[in-house]
Amino acid sequence: MDRSSNSGIKRVVFVIYPGVTLLDVTGPIQAFSSANNTEAAQRERIYDVVVASPEGGMITTDCMVELGSVSLEQAAEIPIDTLIIAGGDGVFDAVEQDSLVEWIKQRKFDSRRVASTCMGTFLIAAAGLLDGLSATTHWRHVEELQNRFPNIQVKRDPLFIRHGNVWSSAGVTAGIDLALAMIQEDMGHEAAMQVAQTLVVFFKRPGGQSQFSDILTIQAAEAGGLFADLHAWIAGHLQSDLSVTTLAERLAMSPRNFARKYKDSIGVTPAKTVEMMRVNAAKRMLVKSHRSLAEIALNTGFIDEQRLRRAFHRHVGTSPMAYRETFGEALVE
Predict the structure, then answer these.
(1) Is 203 helix (H, G, I), strand (E, B) or coil?
(2) Run of H or E including 297
(3) Which regions span the lipid bilayer (predicted)?
(4) Options 3.40.50.150, 3.40.50.880, 3.30.230.10, 3.30.70.790; CATH of 10-199
(5) What is the pLDDT of residues 226-277, one digit of tens each?
(6) In the CATH scheme, what is the code of domain 214-331?
(7) Is the pTM of this model over 0.70?
(8) Phi, psi values for residue 275, rounded to 5°
């Protein structure tokens, strides 16, 4: 187990500022704190978490909750193992603070890791830490990040990206995925798994997995609600014939016209939506029942286990049984 400071404790410093997103800070902090209580920690304190801001003191977050902080000067008095720049709408004021940007720039050379959560990527980009590299941020700000820093390859989909000792993560809860990846690197797979189970989050969503869930993608796409009733009907008839012909008949449209309008409106084919909804239903059954994989496949319209496994891997990035094992301790009696 690698420990960078003389005391053997890894100092994780979160940089915040007025308008920082609360969950960008507290989500990863909870992950590191929970790691101290895992069996792998062997009753030793592995992480010491510090919250810092340019001047120190109480900082008001996006939801008006105040967080206490030490100054950047105080934070740097003891070696920093991992520096994490939190995101939030206040980042656009923060990037104009030359002293803050310069302080972050220096940390690349004297910290083992420098990372950003969500919109915090704007700050590490301003510090030049991402020059010539790829990075990610909250999906709403991908284009703005790319426009401000054209020498960075900004990627919309990944949950987090790592280049050497520089990491960036996507929107809000992706910061927890980033923290889990760091915990795994420091303490091993089992420790990270224990933290994920404690927080009741999935371990591990691959860094390259999309920051959107499949169902959220569908819901966000149909702003006009043209296919809302059809989606509700599909969700209640997953065992039925859900071919393009059947779905088109529900809307009194020709199969060709239906398929074209659906793809134009939703962004995916009707068959893709059906598969997404069946996988989503399978996920619920896996964690809320003792049904066998064969039963779940039949009840969600996949017919057989092999088809369910293939679809599950495509959308979730892991096997159905690994997914059940991850959540089973907390949710399956």
Answers:
(1) coil
(2) helix 293-299
(3) none
(4) 3.40.50.880
(5) 788 898 899 889 999 999 999 999 999 999 999 999 998 888 899 999 999 9
(6) 1.10.10.60
(7) no
(8) -65, -40
